[in-house]
Amino acid sequence: MYTLGRHIIVECSGCRPDVLNDLDIVQSILTDAAISANAEVRERAFHHFAPQGVSGVVVISESHLSVHTWPEYGYAALDIYTCGEHTLPWKACRQVAEAFGATSLKATLVRRGIETDGKSFSHEIIDLEDGNGIEPSTELALVL
Asked: Is residue 84 a contact partner of residue 93, using CB atoms and an 8 Å limit?
């Protein structure tokens, strides 16, 4: 497969409810993560729900970072999708999870691209539960 993009689907648990319920903080965290991942921010759209929760997207030249939060459960669902070799999606993933105060993180990596030699896309489920920092496995680091 010729990989054109990396799509990380993230489940963050044990997050700080006050952070997850603050639109300005959530928007700032996702924007900063995009910049730290060497992405070029184009647009942002965020919404605060009543009585609680935030959804939003940071559109980047390389694709997007999106989030939906459930402060009442300390849970956030994230999509981090980047194209190009210069972006660092795992860095964005780690930065957002740490800023949310996540105590547990599960991620699925989907390599997006064009089939070659009869092979289809790759889908891996990676458990990244580590209270002292969140890193992909060595094997995944090689493909990033």
From this structure: no
Of 64, 68, 93, 104, catalytic: 68
Report pLDDT digits (tens) over 133-143: 344 543 333 23
Look up the CATH number of the domain holding residue 76.
3.60.90.10
Number of helical H runs and strand E runs in the chain: 4, 7
CA distances from 38 to 42, 49, 56 (A): 13, 30, 20
Q: How far apart are CA 130 and CA 127, in angstroms?
A: 9
Determine, yes or no, domain membership for 143: no
pTM of the entire predicted model: 0.82
Is 63 a catalytic site residue? yes
Kind and range of the H or E run holding 19: helix 17-20
**Residue 43 predicted with pLDDT over 70:** yes
Question: Is 86 labeled as catalytic in the residue annotation?
Answer: no
Number of domains in the chain: 1
**pLDDT tens for residues 59-115?**
999 999 999 999 999 999 999 999 988 999 999 999 999 999 999 999 988 888 777
The catalytic position among 7, 12, 15, 63 is: 63
Q: Which of 66, 83, 93, 104 is catalytic?
A: 83
